[in-house]
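Instructor's aside before we start: the two examples that follow are unrelated to each other. I chose them only because their records fit on one page, so don't look for a connection. First example below.
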Amino acid sequence: MSKKLAVPLLVLALFVIIVGGSWLRIFNEYWQVVFFYIGINIIMAVSLNLINGYMGEFSCGHAAFMAVGAYVSGILTVWWFAEDKVFGPPVLPASLGILLVPVAILIGGLAASFVGLLIAIPSFRTRGDYLAIITLAVNYIVKSAIENMEIIGGPRGFLGMQRVMNAITAVLDIPWLLIWTFIGGIGTIILIQRFVSSTFGKGVMAIREDEVAAGLMGVNTRWVKLIAFMVSCGLAGVAGGLFAHGPGGYINPGMFTILKSTEAMVMVYLGGMGSISGNVLSAVFFTLLLEMLRPLGVYKWVVIPLLLVLMMLFRPSGLMGSRELGDVFPQLRAWFGKEEEYAPASN
């Protein structure tokens, strides 16, 4: 077995266990929802890590792009497959939903990527912390814009995605949303890993170390930053599209506030900037922590920041720092493809 295939195969095995267990009713509905949110958080954390970790910029409005993907994909699937007072009767049979709902989610990701491009063009003319200010403003702009669009429910929100999922499940009763979510999570991990390992991705990390020096070495810094930002925003849009079709099939602008963006940043810094393994572990840990502290109600947002403060005091680089599992546990290098970059020359 190729070592490069080890990680995808291990993740795929976990995916088969969870989805198969859900299909066979080994996991009850509660745990299916928990696994769903773990998948969403993995996509959000790993995608934001591309900007905040690998590129060294500071984006704090990731929820805005999640909202774009959620609303675009939700509108498309309701229009195609559900009876709705705005869009009328469905235009396509539910049997096509198995193939076209993922397409709608990808279209939502493309829409989020396009919005990211519109934000990145003026943003990357500046340097320093200006991107944080701009993305924070974009988060509020997107939320306010959606609240003023009465055709999609305005502040009341948009619903109908549950009818879409019910129609698809009636065709074939398996946990489709869980399948799509974990495929999205696996795809995000592989895409970001391949991106940062490529020659183009090395330019992203060069910008993090020294943007001026990277430019002098021939890296088109503005072009690299634009592409990286669009990839990150597009993946956030995919997460939003999946989120829109989650339990209840309902979204509203209040779900995509600065608090949602903060959750993504917490997972990035908790796991370690520049570590995909750390982001996956932190997404799992953070989701389970939220569930364990749910009985505390709003007080959990006192406990969680306190834990983060302690984390920053005693482990400021996060759980993994900039390392991967193969770096922390050398015995796993054979599985995670961590071979010596410079082998001794043969005579």
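Example two begins here.
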Amino acid sequence: MGGFFHSYHKTASSILDSYHFQEPFAVFLKNYFRRHKKSGSRDRKIISDLCYGFLRIGKSCPTLDFNTKMGIGYYLTHKADNGYLQWLNFPLPLSADNDIAEKILAVKDIFGAFEQELLFPEINSVMPEINHSNFIASHLKQPPFFIRVRPGNKSKFQKLLKENKFPGEWVDENAICIESTGKLPDDILPDKDFVIQDISSQKTFDIIKGVPIPLETIWDVCAGSGGKTLMAADFFPTAKIYASDIREEILDELQRRASVAGIKKVKLFCTDLEHPMSSAVVRSNLPAAGVDLIIADVPCTGSGTWVRSPEWLHEMDAETIDLYQRRQIAIVEKLPQHLKKGGYLLYITCSVYEQENTGVVDFLEQNSPLKLVGTNILAGDLQGGDYLFSALFTLPV
């Protein structure tokens, strides 16, 4: 097997050396294999696994050589050795009985240059409510993915699960966890029957359950491709929904998804909410009296989702976090004027950094007419999902 491991290791090295963080690593890797067709499916899987093991250790050992980093990455992200570590002459044996904490300690003992706190960038800026050790450890394994079953389709999915049509299990009332290697049957359709949506993202509306006013009008201000828009339409089927984004092409995708989902009460418009003139565009598209609920799932570092995209463990710094906070404030400070009296603003990030979460909450409390109702941290590691933050405000009557 030595020749195979040499080839896999060399290819992984070439891929990582040519990756410059200009696009998601998953996209880069897919394009690489499209250009280099000699690798079979098993080869691609092994090479990808080696690359992701390397990426998952972040900046924890910058002074160590590439082979050592590859060994540490493989050791920390696997329960058994397929022969790779032996071929690499790595000094630590793998055992299924080793837990992550034990393995991290073993690496620290052997490699003095390994720094556990650098497994995640700017760890001291992560919210103190999150257990930092558990959070770091959660990035050393491949996460599953989740689907949200849309209204009226639960019995169909119960039947599919009962008949073992795909490897999944219910983890919430309408949520199914599916291992990352799973394949969905062809007779169920995305957006029509289900939505691919992280378990934590599915729970971001929990904080608005039981609000004392009917939500007849909703504005999703940074809609993207429409995950929250579609969920709002399912949760509040009688509401008129407005959705905006800075990117026209992403709104085209949202329109397509809404059409597949059979959602007709949606109005889309394009605007840059960081631009000082955006309020005029918003006023021309929203009801004159404002809306009952604003969903502000704002641009952020995405640090709560890096278990799925570990390449960003190598590229984040304090200056970038501050930049995102300034962008978030530039957006949210314009929103209260478009809210009805007694209405609600739901602020959401998929970040774990204080500056993007409580930092923005503090700004709104001190510089806007909004009153904080409550906050919520959705700690996805309990089910293998993402980390999200939400805060609910109301505009007093």
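The chain has a mean pLDDT of 93.
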